[in-house]
User: Fold DUF2282 domain-containing protein from Pseudoduganella ginsengisoli.
Amino acid sequence: MNKRQALIAAALVTVCAAGAASAADAPKGDKEKCYGIAKAGQNDCAAANGAHSCAGQSKEDNGAAEWKFVAKGTCEKAGGKTTPPAK
Assistant:
């Protein structure tokens, strides 16, 4: 890995970590985590099972450990669950 690639990788890790922290804390009150409805690459933060630690890294549609923020009360209507899967 050359210096340029190392700098890019470090920048991406920093952005991802900052995004994960702010995404996990941002929506409150009128939003809730909904597991099992995120399309591949469209999850809002880290997987519940630890498979990855950033938004947008899901590899499959509707993965049980992947989640998105949705309006409160709409998760189960969309086919999701408000609790993470058992480990």
In short: The radius of gyration is 14 Å. The beta strands are 31-35, 67-71.
